[in-house]
Design a protein that fits this description.
7-stranded parallel β-sheet; two-stranded parallel ribbon; 9 strands; 263 residues; alpha/beta
Length: 263
């Protein structure tokens, strides 16, 4: 508790799924939480739950990161409230399922904005403060999708490949400044993501998947340990390693079969 007193964490996409569970991890250890998402009522409910369960202090910022101006507006609100960010958790993101040629163009661009552009912009805005203080942590939520191409979710897989590559490179750049950068790469997880992405009938989500609380806890521990790549679950770790050895064309065909819906 002593090490976390006065420390603040900003979590985007905090109203549900992995972001929600990460908020609980930080609350247990006494961090001041800055909760950001699109839905105010969900953030209010979460803040009240964290207060009731863990006596955690929370600030709420309602922001839609699909808006290109959102990161700068978020920073303006942080500065207006006198809030500094010791740990940044870029968790906000979503997926789209279907053939690239048939998907709605604006939805594709919104996904790129949330998954890549806002993540990058927010990191760029908050990193100088961390460097000035000589400490800080950044957790970017990627996916095991980052390790291979993904037919039927071509753009989503590509966005997560960006997040992983960006995180690894940035981790190297900022390490001398006392800052760590981690990429959390979960596999299929029960979060509601599959419903938003229309993936509920995909073979990828058959069987037993990890729950969001378990993924969040593994991500939280890995972040505090300064790990650069965090892959929850032995099965996901094996898959992420094995795809590096497989011929790319064959791998792409395998992923396509996994993405296809059940008959």
């Amino acid at each position: 508790m002593g090490e976390t007193k006065g420390k603040s964490v900003l979590i985007t996409g905090a109203s549900s799924g992995i972001g929600y569970e990460l908020a609980k991890c930080f609350a247990i250890d006494g961090y001041h939480l800055i909760l950001c998402a699109r839905r105010e009522e969900k953030l209010v409910e979460l803040a009240q739950h964290l207060q009731d369960s863990f006596q955690a202090k929370s600030s709420i910022i309602v922001q839609d990161l699909a808006d290109p101006s959102a990161p700068a507006e978020l920073l303006r609100k942080l500065e207006g409230d006198g809030l500094k960010v010791d740990i940044l958790v870029n968790n906000a993101g979503f997926g789209l399922y279907g053939l690239f040629s048939t998907l709605d163009t604006q939805e594709i661009l919104d996904m790129i904005q949330v998954n890549i552009s806002s993540l990058t912009h927010l990191t760029k805005l908050l990193l100088p403060g961390m460097m000035e203080r000589g400490n800080g942590k950044i957790l970017n939520v990627a996916s095991t999708a980052a390790f291979q191409p993904g037919p039927l979710m071509a753009v989503y897989y590509a966005t997560k490949a960006y997040v992983l590559s960006f995180s690894e490179a940035l981790a190297n750049e900022v390490e001398p400044h006392g800052i760590s950068v981690s990429a959390l790469c979960p596999g299929p997880t029960e979060t509601g993501f599959e419903k938003r992405a229309n993936l509920e009938k995909s073979k990828l989500f058959q069987g037993v998947n990890m729950d969001a609380a378990t993924v969040a806890r593994i991500g939280y521990v890995g972040l505090l340990q300064g790990k650069t790549i965090i892959i929850p679950g032995l099965k996901n770790q094996i898959l992420a390693s094995s795809v590096r050895l497989a011929p790319r064309k064959m791998l792409t065909k395998v992923v396509r079969r996994l993405q296809e819906t059940r008959k």
